[in-house]
Amino acid sequence: LEQGVSQGRLAVEESRAAGHATHLWVQCWNIPRDREDSVCQTAHAFAKLGPDTLWAWSFRGGEGTNEACDDPARAWSALVRAFREIKNTSAAETQRRRGQQARLHQP
After folding, report:
1. CA angle (43 as vertex; 99, 49 as ends), nearest 5
2. What is the pLDDT of residues 48-69, one digit of tens each?
3. Where are the alpha helices (DSSP H) in the chain?
4. Is the Cα torsion angle 28, 77, 8, 70 positive or negative in sign?
5. Which of 88, 85, 86, 68 is nearest to 76 (CA)?
6. First-to-last CA distance in the chain?
7. What is the C-alpha to C-alpha distance for residues 60 and 104, in angstroms, rounded to an integer?
8. Can you give the pTM of this predicted structure?
9. Rg of the chain taking only CA atoms, in angstroms
């Protein structure tokens, strides 16, 4: 996780410095059994880096492919849970900021 976050941080910094959008990808394929929560942890860690977009590969944990997770359904569930939590956190943060801005602009 630490190496991935370090590389993600570098990608965000370099992309912003060059004026490009940042896209980070969460691995959701070839995840060993009982490591599915690492998908959720990685997604949250990447989201905190503030990329423009956060993506995942592969759909449904690679189910039916030769790169499938040991438990594709569990890995996919961890990813969906993480993305929902990130979306809800982002929405709450946006609402909080809008509330602060509105208070700043009140006469």
Report:
1. 60
2. 999 999 999 999 999 999 999 9
3. 2-17, 37-48, 72-104
4. negative
5. 68
6. 48
7. 44
8. 0.81
9. 17
